[in-house]
Amino acid sequence: MTASADEFRQSMDSALRTLRELRANRPAAESAETCGEANAADGLITVVAAPGGRIESITLAPQALRQGSGYLAEQLTIAVNAALDDLRARTIADAPDVPDPAVLLERLEDVQQQSVRQMQSFLSALTSAQARIARIAG
Q: What is the pLDDT of residues 7-62, one digit of tens each?
């Protein structure tokens, strides 16, 4: 096996190992139940955000409805944004330690470049062999 073939194999092995780590360390199904929660209007409004940026529930105390529509809209906006921020923070905190996607991308780009070089070398050898056969057949 040539040095470039060894390098290619090593790069491919490294990329595949990284992909296996990503797959093995991906969050379990139960972590999909992570939710973000926030309150506004002195606790009169509670918002729960589910994965995917979906709002699971909004709870309003009757007193919040007496504050007027402008105040209610402002406090709902605050609570929704805070619940989404909380969800994002919890998701990051609950995420397993996985390889950096930038590292994986770099490894795959190396594999791609080596693949192209190997294929060019292979095609060049085939072209040379074809030319020799054509000369011999003459």
A: 777 777 777 777 777 666 665 544 457 899 999 999 999 999 999 889 999 999 99
Strand-pairing partners, residue 54, are: 50
By CB atoms closer than 10 A (0-12, 13-18, 19+), residue 75 is buried
Q: Which among 61, 56, 70 is positioned nearest to 40, based on CA atoms? A: 61
Query: Dmax over Cα atoms in the chain, in whole Å?
Result: 98
Token digits for 6? 């060894």
Predicted TM-score (pTM) of the model is 0.51
Say how far apart CA 101 and CA 91 lie, in whole Å: 17
Buried b (16+ CB within 10 A) or exposed e, 83-115: bbebbeebbeeeeeeeeeeeebeebbebbeebe
